[in-house]
Q: What sequence folds into this?
């Protein structure tokens, strides 16, 4: 029995800022003070507030330390764990008020969140099956196997209103019922953990923080659909997630929660981890299954759908990590509980990975129907450096942007589709006034051109032509006709591509054209980039009356393009200037302007 | 594992080890003064005794925490017992034997041990 538990975040974000070293140092310090039998140090999954990592919570006080450094550990052990005095300077600033220390759930970041899929992340030790069981783990599986028929399980999932969290939003219960209806000697369950959107890390965090929950959900899906084997397709770039999944699978097998005759019900189920090599197209379900089979990851036409002919040509149910993460809670608490959250057609919660120009970079889970304004300003802490919000990109390279005037749109599947975006897997990239929307569209196209598998022509050739037109526009050589061509080509690619990658690749272009057409026009007509991003359309100059002749910019310029005598106004030779902006950053008198 | 009962037994056993992480306001809190004065007077074995006894009796509704100087250094080791909805009871000059009795009488049976409280001793 330990009197105090120290939870240290072991997610990828905090691990990369040294949380493992913090754990090791803490264990050594505890030992030196003779506290090793009183205080337990636990490595957990992601707490969500990645911007302030590494994060540590000390129980029973529940005090939340942020940005902990290895050097702070002896002080925490000496002051807090030995003498019972919190180290106030390390407390998360939001929790400290002049009168008292607030609970974590009262802070802006956590107050409006509702954690279902992430309920155990940052709470339990993901490498200890007993802690998962302590928080009601595997009860849902036991309930299904001992009290419910497969049809009843599917009915509960249908009634809950759960829809696929990978992006498309297909009703999960319906998907399960399709596989269940097909007779076959072998069926499969596949978990899609090939999270490839730039800026998305929801699935990784669930796998790292609560791997048993995915195992339990896949076994439930196997029981409901009649499958006895499952595959988790996870990218090799997620080493922590892969390691914890494997540990969790081994523990579940040892306890008989995977294997033969689970809970004495006669139901057999086993799971395997398959590593992906990081191709974006393998997140598409048919390409993913082709890759598991050992072939090159390329999509194939549907129908036949996986429910009829999926992995190894057998009926297969494929769901995303976050979809599965909701299943045990739905079975335990009932369909009505889940359906009570969210909007009319989008039930439950959604996890978002906040990234880009936002104060609280991290992982949040909110009920469906929460507005973008709440997510960005209340939970996300707003835009840093007093800049203005311009747009948020949802759904990564397959999605679109939500501009400032639509910030009060309740986020759910149908509302986002209505404004030309998509929910996507949940990456939310925030952009401020300094981002050029044409450049953003170019960034995502650059990604899809690289990631197009090359099987079908509209996607392989079409996306490249799109990128070339965008290049032309951002380098100041575009014409108004190019904008029309761009739009026409977008629709052509959407209609004719084989799989989801090509069908959605033009979305970033279309949505920026829809909401920020004026920026495109500024690039082709005025030959200006309003946000000051596209280098070919920029020029730097020095305002003579503001320049004090301090020579700092001339010293910093990497190409020697700035000249001038001491204490006299300097000038920039635009033929030599490479537009790196170093001079502007270094000038103390704001004398350098960018046009 | 073959039955739901087995799973529930395992859950209850595992849950008992995680009481420290429960931050609900329903819990009874035992707070031991652990400043220099407290430690010098022997607060560490006193606190460990609280942890040991509550674990032994499976009191999953009790957490044991430490705090800084309570302010009456001459009466250390001091512990405060806070039962939700009841007035705080402050015990002073504690020993391991006194703790054992407090756990049984106060935490299990709900009867504060008046003779160990600051009111009785600091007269």
A:
């Amino acid at each position: 029995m330990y009197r105090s538990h120290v939870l240290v975040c072991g997610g990828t974000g905090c691990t990369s800022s040294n949380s493992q070293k913090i754990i090791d140092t803490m264990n050594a310090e505890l030992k030196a003070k003779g506290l090793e039998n009183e205080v337990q140090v636990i490595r957990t999954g992601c707490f969500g507030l990645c911007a302030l990592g590494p994060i540590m919570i000390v129980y029973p006080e529940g005090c939340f330390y942020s940005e902990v450094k290895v050097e702070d550990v002896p002080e925490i052990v000496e002051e807090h764990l030995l003498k019972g005095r919190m180290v106030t300077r390390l407390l998360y600033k939001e929790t400290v008020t002049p009168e008292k220390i607030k609970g974590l759930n009262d802070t802006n970041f956590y107050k409006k969140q509702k954690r279902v899929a992430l309920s155990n992340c940052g709470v339990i030790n993901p490498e200890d099956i007993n802690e998962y069981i302590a928080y009601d783990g595997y009860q849902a599986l036991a309930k299904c196997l001992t009290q419910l028929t497969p049809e009843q399980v599917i009915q509960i999932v249908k009634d809950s209103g759960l829809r696929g969290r990978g992006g498309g939003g297909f009703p999960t219960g319906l998907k399960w019922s399709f596989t269940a209806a097909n007779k076959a000697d072998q069926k499969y369950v596949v978990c899609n953990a090939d999270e490839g959107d730039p800026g998305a890390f929801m699935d990784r965090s669930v796998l790292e923080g609560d791997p048993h929950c995915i195992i339990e959900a896949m076994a439930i899906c196997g029981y409901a659909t009649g499958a006895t084997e499952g595959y988790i397709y996870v990218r090799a770039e997620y080493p922590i997630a892969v390691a914890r999944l494997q540990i969790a699978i081994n523990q579940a097998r040892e306890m008989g929660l995977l294997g033969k005759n689970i809970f004495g019900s006669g139901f057999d189920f086993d799971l395997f981890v398959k590593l992906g090599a990081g191709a974006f197209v393998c997140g598409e379900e048919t390409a993913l299954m082709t890759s598991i089979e050992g072939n090159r990851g390329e999509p194939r036409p549907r129908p036949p759908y996986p429910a009829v002919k999926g992995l190894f040509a057998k009926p297969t149910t494929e769901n995303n990590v976050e979809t599965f993460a909701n299943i045990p809670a739905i079975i335990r608490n009932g369909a009505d509980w889940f359906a009570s959250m969210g909007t009319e057609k989008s039930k439950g919660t959604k996890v978002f990975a906040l990234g880009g120009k936002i104060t609280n970079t991290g992982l949040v889970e909110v009920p469906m129907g929460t507005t973008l304004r709440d997510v960005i300003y209340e939970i996300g802490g707003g835009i840093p450096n007093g800049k203005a919000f311009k747009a948020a990109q949802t759904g990564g390279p397959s999605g679109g942007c939500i501009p400032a005037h639509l910030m009060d749109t309740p986020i759910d599947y149908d509302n986002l589709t209505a404004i030309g975006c998509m929910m996507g897997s949940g990456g939310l990239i925030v952009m401020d006034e300094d981002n050029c929307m044409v450049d953003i569209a170019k960034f995502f196209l650059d990604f899809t051109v690289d990631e197009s598998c090359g099987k079908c022509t509209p996607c392989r050739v079409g996306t490249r032509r799109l990128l070339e037109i965008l290049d032309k526009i951002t380098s100041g050589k575009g014409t108004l006709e190019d904008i029309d061509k761009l739009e026409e080509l977008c629709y052509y690619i959407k209609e004719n591509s084989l799989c989801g990658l090509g069908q959605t690749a033009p979305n970033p272009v279309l949505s920026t054209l829809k909401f920020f057409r004026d920026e495109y026009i500024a690039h082709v007509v005025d030959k200006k980039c309003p946000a000051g991003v596209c280098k070919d359309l920029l020029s730097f100059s020095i305002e003579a009356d503001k320049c004090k002749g301090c020579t700092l910019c001339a010293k910093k310029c990497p190409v020697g393009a700035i000249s001038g005598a001491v204490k006299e106004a300097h000038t920039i030779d635009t033929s030599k200037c490479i537009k790196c902006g170093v001079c502007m950053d270094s000038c103390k008198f704001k004398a350098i302007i960018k046009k | 594992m073959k039955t739901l009962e087995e799973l529930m037994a395992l859950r209850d056993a595992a849950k008992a080890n995680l009481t420290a992480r429960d931050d609900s306001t329903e819990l009874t809190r035992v707070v031991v003064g652990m400043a220099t004065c407290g430690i010098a007077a022997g607060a560490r074995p006193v606190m460990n005794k609280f942890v040991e006894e509550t674990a032994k009796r499976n009191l999953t509704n009790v957490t044991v925490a430490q705090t800084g100087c309570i302010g009456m250094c001459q009466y250390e080791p001091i512990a405060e017992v806070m039962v939700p909805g009841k007035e705080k009871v402050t015990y002073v000059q504690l020993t391991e034997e006194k703790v054992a009795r407090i756990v049984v009488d106060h935490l299990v049976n709900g009867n504060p041990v008046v003779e160990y409280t600051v009111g009785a001793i600091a007269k």
Chain B touches chain A through 35 residues (CB under 8 Å).
